[in-house]
Design brief:
Order of helices and strands: HHHHHHH
Largest sheet: none
Radius of gyration: 25 Å
Strand content: under 5%
Helix content: 55-70%
Structural class: mainly alpha
Distance between the termini: 43 Å
Shape: elongated
């Protein structure tokens, strides 16, 4: 009995956290609710009913937030709009973080030199590594055959999944 209750409590926590995070615009970051938040009647224990109520409340809050026409249901357009808002908020956070990290002169803008310096700081070697791999005979020049072979290898990699698995079908 304890294991299903714990799983349910965690599920409720994730649901409540997702709702709170969506309101805050932070998207992927999530925190689990406190014991006190789940213990709705403050009796010192969490019941499955309290967990289910928390999950239902979280779902209702997410629907209400996305239901822009107030009809109590979510259309594809409303769901897409909500997803776009969340994606835009995450992207805005990433962009602000990138500017903060790379803005060497403190003007709040990224100049080409700052972007190149940031790429260099992360250990990127630019096109040289790829060029050297393609230059099979190490003569400093790519022949049409070496170029074609390199393009073939890149096409093969493109047919694989994110961890190198083949997508054969």
């Amino acid at each position: 009995m304890k294991t299903p209750l714990l799983v349910a409590a965690i599920a409720a926590g994730i649901t409540l956290a997702a709702t709170a995070e969506a309101r805050d615009g932070r998207g992927a970051h999530m925190t689990l609710p406190t014991f006190e938040e789940l213990d709705a009647n403050a009796d010192g224990g969490i019941t499955i009913d309290e967990v289910e109520a928390a999950i239902a409340a979280g779902a209702a809050a997410r629907v209400a937030e996305a239901d822009t026409d107030g009809d109590g249901a979510l259309s594809a357009e409303e769901m897409l709009a909500r997803a776009s808002e969340e994606r835009a908020a995450r992207m805005a956070d990433r962009i602000a973080d990138r500017i903060e990290k790379a803005d060497a002169n403190g003007d709040g803008l990224l100049q080409l030199e700052e972007i190149q310096a940031q790429a260099g700081d992360r250990g990127r070697r630019g096109p040289e590594r790829m060029f050297n791999r393609a230059d099979a005979n190490d003569d400093g020049t790519l022949s049409a055959e070496e170029f074609a072979q390199a393009m073939e290898r890149m096409a093969e990699r493109g047919e694989r999944g994110p961890r190198g698995e083949r997508n054969d079908g």
